[in-house]
Amino acid sequence: MIPDFTNPAACDWWFGKRQYLLDMGVDGFKTDGGEFVYDDNARFFDGRTGAQMKNGYAMVYTRAYTDFIRDDRMLFSRAGYTGAQTTPMHWAGDQQSTWEELRHVVTAGLNAGLSGLPFWGFDLAGFAGKMPSAELYLRSFCLACFAPVMQWHSEPASGQFSELLAASEEEINDRSPWNMAKVTGMPEILDICRRFTQERERLLPYILKEASVSADTGRPLMAALVIDWPEDKEACAVDDEYMFGSQLLVAPVLEEGVVGRQVYLPKGNWNDYWTGEQTAGPCCLYKECRAGELLVWRLN
Q1: How far apart are CA 100 and CA 256, in angstroms?
Q2: Contact at 8 Å (CB) between 75 and 87?
Q3: Percent helix, strand and coil across the chain, each to the nearest 5
Q4: For residue 123, which of 44, 69, 147, 153 is within the disulfide window of CB 3.0 to 4.6 Å?
């Protein structure tokens, strides 16, 4: 059972029951689930069939919410279709806590930006499955600090991926820093996460300024290097770095057990975000980066 948001009367009824949330000051909604049309023979108010709405319903769903909340509130969705850039924000959905999924998260974010989605995020260190290692958690946490949306989000231990967990009624499938510090026996996780959370707060004026540019121009807040250096063949081939806004280049470590990586810096004058060290691009260099650190450069 899903609401038929192509029916104006259904929209009036549905959102009439949610108006009180706006009246009490709610900033927005998260359309998490409810995008699925299972019956190909279903008939919607506007005449489309279930088969025609397999993809289209996600857009009808988020468009209805966007029209309801108007421009001064936010919608956060895991699904969309053609035109999804008009109903931001989005996130990557229910990935598992694995290194492979972390790598795919970056690919998904770059592809989202290249597809016109300006604001995008992911569930840091994964949403489900076995708990992440401390190394995976910290790599993901640091990455999320320099992503359009920073959040942790995890399903209950009894959720859809519960068969992946150890058999225990006491299992708490919680990706919060304090629970991760507890289950890994590494209290230093809290200090690292606190430091990067504070860094995120310091970044907010920059993020808000760049988000305004994204809203005005369509340039994604998480942008593949090809967007800014389309004539640079090296930049066009890079698929594991990105520009966070117009000034910050982020090069995350996405492999287990490594302490650094090769980084490509396109043409420009670059300052190491943390040390201020200057480097002139284009160039390729190796930089060490332990778990709990992130490679970031500022373009001058």
Answers
A1: 10
A2: yes
A3: 35, 20, 45
A4: 153
185 is written with which tokens? 């026996």
Q: Is 123 a catalytic residue?
A: no
The answer to whether the CB of 248 falls within 8 A of the CB of 228 is: no
At residue 56, the 3 state secondary structure works out as helix
Q: Annotated catalytic residue: which of 4, 12, 27, 35?
A: 35
pLDDT digits (tens, 9 = 90+) for 150-165: 998 887 766 666 666 6
**Of 4, 12, 32, 174, which is the active-site residue?**
32
Strands 90-91 and 120-123: parallel
What letter would DSSP give residue 84? G
Q: Which helix (H) or strand (E) holds 279?
A: strand 278-288
Residue 111 CA to residue 104 CA, distance in Å, equals 10
Backbone dihedral region of 91: left (phi > 0), alpha (psi from -120 to 50 degrees) or beta? beta
Respond yes or no: is residue 199 known to be catalytic: no
- pLDDT per position as a tens digit, 235-290: 999 999 999 999 999 999 999 999 999 999 999 999 999 999 999 999 999 999 99
